Amino acid sequence: MEPTPLLIVDAANVVGSRPDGWWRDRAGATARLRDALVPLAESGVPPQLAGPAEVVLVVEGAARGVPAVPGVRVVAAPGSGDDTIVDLVGAAPGRRRLVVTADRELRSRVGALGAEVQGPRWLPT
What we know:
Layout: E1 2-10, H1 11-16, H2 26-43, E2 44-45, E3 49-50, E4 54-59, E5 72-76, H3 81-90, E6 95-100, H4 104-112, E7 116-118
Parallel strand pairs: 1-4, 1-6, 4-5, 6-7
Antiparallel strand pairs: 2-3
C-alpha cells in the first residue's frame, strides 16, 4: 500500500458550502480554498489524517482555470467533477483515499470503491 494518503477535495461542493460570497467570484473562492489546503500537504488533518498527504483539488465550471500551487495539485474536470473524483479514487486502489464532499451520491460512489469520506466542515480552512 502506498504510504502517502490521497486527499481529494470536491472544490465546487466545499466552496458552495460556505456563505462567503463565492457566487460573485467562483474562481477567486476556489483559489482561496486551494491556498488554505497547502498546509494540509505537510500536516494532514490530525488526528484523522496524518501528514504528509497528496492533496488534490478537483475543479469544474468557472473555476477550471485555477492553477496548481506547490502542495496542491489541481485537476480540472473535463465534464462532471463527481466523475473525475470517482476516476481519481479508482485509479489509486493501493493507497488510503479520503474524499471531502457533502454530495450524497458522490459519497456513495467513492465509498463503494473503498474511499473514506468527510464533509466540508472537516477541513480546517
